[in-house]
Write a structure and sequence with these properties.
Blueprint: H1 4-17, H2 29-36, H3 40-52, E1 56-59, E2 63-66, H4 71-95, H5 98-116, H6 120-137, H7 141-148, H8 151-162, H9 167-183, H10 187-207, H11 209-212
Antiparallel strand pairs: 1-2
Length: about 210
């Protein structure tokens, strides 16, 4: 059973990653505690955990606020993601099965459903899920261990990028193209499309400058 601190931690982290509380906005302990039906102590402990993960910072005047990434940090996260994804591609091809392809197809259909419903939370959840299916397909414990430490940050950046004009449809189209390349086992094409996908996400992220820097 999860502790109250851990429940609060997951709830607040979701608010940050899914942009319910945006970079630069203040976290109000009393309001969060009331919303979650817990005391202020587990909420405060949860915020300290998030501060340790570099999602939250303490401002001398405002108290705890959601971090704003620097341009340099954002650039590095996207660059690191590109390196990880390049490394994973041949491993994914090796582990790819008809069942995994079916999972990826189902994921894309789910995103299409949530696009029609304008359900941003679930769009982000399934867009992230697309990549997580691919990561697991590497069958590399070491790769999954390393990438797991960054998944939350990647999801946070993804949410910001997809909130840009046309971001969701662009990403969905690119996922469909990437899946087609995986079905063809065409590694050069996968590499090219993955690079385009990350480049476009980086550009969309930068276009949201008013909420991130």
């Amino acid at each position: 059973m999860k502790t109250l601190r851990h429940q609060a931690y997951e709830a607040i982290k979701d608010k940050i990653i899914f942009l319910q509380v945006k970079p630069g906005e203040r976290l109000f302990e009393t309001d969060i505690a009331k919303e979650l039906g817990v005391g202020r102590t587990p909420v405060r402990e949860a915020i300290l955990m998030l501060e340790n993960e570099k999602l939250v910072v303490c401002d001398n005047k405002l108290g705890y606020i959601v971090r704003k990434l620097s341009r340099e940090e954002a650039h590095d996260y996207f660059a690191i993601r590109q390196i990880f994804e390049d490394f994973a591609i041949p491993l994914i091809i090796e582990g790819l099965t008809d069942d995994i392809i079916a999972q990826l197809e189902q994921n894309i259909e789910k995103v299409k459903e949530y696009v029609k419903k304008n359900d941003f939370y679930n769009i982000i959840r399934y867009e992230t899920g697309f990549h997580e299916i691919l990561y697991r397909t590497t069958n590399s414990k070491v790769f999954v261990e390393f990438i797991s430490a960054l998944v939350d940050k990647f999801q946070w950046l993804r949410a910001i990028a997809l909130s840009g004009l046309g971001g969701v449809q662009q990403s969905l189209d690119e996922h469909m193209n990437i899946l087609a390349a995986y079905k063809a086992r065409d590694i050069p094409e996968i590499r090219k499309l993955t690079e385009i996908h990350i480049r476009d996400a980086r550009e969309k992220f930068a276009s949201m400058e008013h909420i991130i820097f």
